DNA sequence: CCAAAAGAGTACTGGTCAGTCCAGTACTCT
DNA sequence: AGAGTACTGGACTGACCAGTACTCTTTTGG
């Protein structure tokens, strides 16, 4: 009875618990600051079980990073739908900017960035993978949106990918750097509002 | 005879050698990837001597980071002198942008950024210090330059600090992120040229 | 020239941690 | 019910490493 559900049962549950615990501890204490015993303990699982599911620490780390990378779609989708009515262009773009900012200044996202950057020497493939599947993919989506706006005559852009980069840079350079260096993921709503409107205004001044 | 020079002699020479070796190894292998024995060996010094000059590993790390932070002045000074003749504004600004890009995509600088970000959890003061003395100071200098240009009617900016942030974001968001994640400090001259001209053009479109 | 300080070299302590081993227990599927 | 598989818990190995101890040599500065 219910074969799939029973297959899911213990083994898969443990697997999930380990992944979740590992993600949490790695994000919190970094790769080398995390011991396999920490993970086992938080997952409420014996160390043996951890090693049964993940051959070693590196593999576990890679898996949790790629797993979170997979979950980026919702954030990226956000960049795809922008109402294309001429009237409220600035307003719509500001709103998009605002959501973009919220998504990328989320503490978990910032922590993940730090984690990947910190270990990009040891795991170069991970950094590259994340850069391509997270970063470049998001930019490409944004560029496509800009292309639509350009086709409709709402913007004047020849290199939409470059424009997407500029849009991100205008918005994110400040808050992301601050978060990276000071660890303060403290951005008030008002801060983000200000960044979104100012960035969008500069962008439109340049590209409309 | 020559008291200062003799003072400089052995002790100071060793001190310098240790700092230099530590900088090199830390940049290369990260904080926890570096052992005190590594440093002693590279500095051609006994481990005892390392501990005579620096009380412990954390202190040594903090010292080398702050030392490199001190050496930022030349890079920052670069942002202060911009010819203010109306004629070649775009050209001059592009040239500034180009130098800015070269300075900040330098492999050593990128490695330092990584090192600080990676350890911002463990050494929050270091990250904050670097952010303030490197980052914010540079932006303030650039803002002052923009103020001069605005006073002369060459630019139209009300919030010069914001404009400085936008200028940096337009230029640096792409290459710095790429370098952070992929580890590839491979930026061809042509790439940098392209980034500088495109960024400057967008900036002037928004702020002139 | 001589005492004090600095350094070399090497061995040692104490602690952490990835990964393994093993003996016994719980679960799952037929 | 019963065989096979997964999980537990704890002990263990081997490696690494920060920081110390100790003895012997070199440098320094008066």
Automatic annotation (TrEMBL), chains A, B:
Residues 35-54 bind DNA. Residues 12-72 form the HTH tetR-type domain. The keyword Chloroplast does not apply. This is TetR/AcrR family transcriptional regulator. PROSITE patterns: HTH_TETR_2. Gene3D superfamilies: Tetracycline Repressor, domain 2 (1.10.357.10). The keyword DNA repair does not apply.
